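Quick one: Gibberellin-regulated protein 1-like from Heracleum sosnowskyi, structure tokens please.
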Amino acid sequence: MAVILSKASATSFLFSLVLLHLITLSLQQMEMSPAPSPGPVGMMDCEGACTERCKETKRPHLCKRACGSCCLKCNCVPPGTSGNYDACPCYFNLKTHNQIRKCP
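--- reply ---
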């Protein structure tokens, strides 16, 4: 009986070591993989684009604030003072908590 228990203990111990080794290798590979880039390489001039987008609105400060946050998330602003959302689908699809389009 002691021999069987000893073999079971040794097998369990070896299995644990192999499992621990595999987990360690997996963690090392995750650490070595390149991190995703922090953002798009070519960040656009959101302030200038939003100034152009909001130049004909009645509430330019509110428009620029909303446009600026949308531009930072999407890295694009549709051309013109309104519409043209097909040029920047991300900008068009951003919604507020009430499911209202966020970006002017």
